[in-house]
Amino acid sequence: MTFFFLSLIAPMKSLFLPNARPPRTTFALMAAGQAGLLLLLWLFYPLQLFPSLGDVLRALADLTTTQGLVPELWASMTTALQALGMATVLALLISYLTALPFFRPLAYAASKMRYLTLTGLTFFVALLVSSGHEVKLSVLTFATTVYLVTGMTAVMLGTTQQELDHARTLGLGEWRSFWEVVVLGKLADMLEVVRQNFAIIWTMITLVETLYQSEGGIGLLLYKQNRYLHLDGVVAIQLVILAAGAAQDYVFGLLRRVFFPYASLASAR
Amino acid sequence: MTPYSYKSPVLTLDNVSLTLHGETILRDISAQVLDVCRPGLSQGQVVGFYGRSGMGKSVLCRLMAGLLAPSSGTVLVGEAQQPATPGAVGFVQQHYPLFNHRTLLDNLLVAAARRYPEPAEARRQAAEYLERFQLTPHRAKYPAHLSGGQRQRAAIAQQLLCSDHLILLDEPFSGLDVAMLDEVRKIILEVTTLDELNTVVIVSHDLATTTALSDRLWLLGQERDAAGQLLPGATISPQHQYNLAEMGLAWHENVEAEPEFVRFVEHLKEEIRAS
């Protein structure tokens, strides 16, 4: 009996050792245990400040059946993906142009623009473009671009002298060396930057959708729930956004594994 | 001792100095590597530059590889003795960099494409080097999956595929265990037997191994002025240039076990300590 108990406990010790690599099943059990604990806490927490699980589930069903949660989520997601696509192209262009000293101030300025507030920015963009959709898309694209440029230029700055010298010793010219080492060599890292910054779009889209309500979106739905103090609805929408974000992260991880299988080979797990 | 004669120079350092951020790193370095001819033998040569840590060896390598321009003096390479430009000399840096996003075969193909514009020929050459360096079973692997030895062989093969007979190795023996050290020696000697024009230049702080493999040796060190003060920058004094082939100490089986070799290495150590 003691032996059985010890054999069960022994792998658990690794969960509290620095840099340890616990067995997969132990880790899965631990994660399930933590999730279960959180659920129990939610179910039996004595203070009723937070809506109960039952309330949230009911709100989720109501939002889905009567308030079009799924189409609103879809509308927000397509806008987010559109913005991300455009921002990625723009940010890659700006970042790669830093190979030429002439364009370095542009990347520097773009990177610093992430400190601009969204509300003030929206006002100026509204003066420049006509439809609400364009305003939303422009603001999201701009804001995402400046964050992406920051991450992407950091990746590029991580290029070592040795890497570039290696390409040069093979007789590759400066542009070809740049293409091989920085563009192709760092593509997986660039995708990681895009993945990490996609979350920013979700925090911004909810704000932008409340400013431009004509097209709806999950941000507007959240705003309405907030406004009428439907806390159960707010939590339900937040959980939906959380799940959508987790799914996105998974897809990005999958893309990375499929297209850049070498990317994770040297990393410690 | 195998008879030999020298032909035209393949690498010339003529009064090379380098100053970086106001600090003299290298001063008035002159050395010349001549193509060696051994009748009846199809074998190139190994020459060595020894220097203690922090002496500017890697900088010297970058100068010889054309990756850095000297502040004064000239570096000439090849039979035509042209100024060194990137790609003119094969250069295997420390830690054997490869393109991590490409498989081993693709790494070799990128290098081969320069000398063999015809894709079929490039592929044939790459396959030949894979075979010669016992890397064929690993051709589809990414560099992260290669062992240290495989990585070093791959890096050398990559440079050989695109360079003209002159190949520089920066610290090839650094941090290797005895078995790996033997492996690297084998690779270096293999490179010299690939083509009689091949010259391997070793730049290292491993005195015994570099001396054992080299036909010629240069010691990088610091000189003192008349007052006994150290002069800035590393250099090669005339008395620190050794023709090991002439001394009968050029590489041959078990050279390291011979008393002459042991005495010579001890002498070198004393010279280094005194400088």
Based on the coordinates given, report the CATH architecture of chain A.
Orthogonal Bundle
Identify the biggest protein-protein contact and residues per side.
Answer: A-B, 21 and 26 residues
CATH architecture of the largest domain in chain B: 3-Layer(aba) Sandwich
Largest sheet of chain B: 6 strands, mixed
Share in helix of chain A: over 70%
CATH fold title of chain A: MetI-like fold
What kind of oligomer do you see? heterodimer
Task: Give the SSE string of chain A.
Answer: HHHHHHHHHHHH
CATH superfamily of the largest domain in chain B: P-loop containing nucleotide triphosphate hydrolases
Question: In short, what is this structure?
Answer:
Chain A has 269 residues and is mostly helical. Chain A has helices at residues 2-13, 24-44, 53-66, 69-97, 104-112, 118-128, 132-157, 161-169, 174-184, 187-211, 218-227, 231-259.
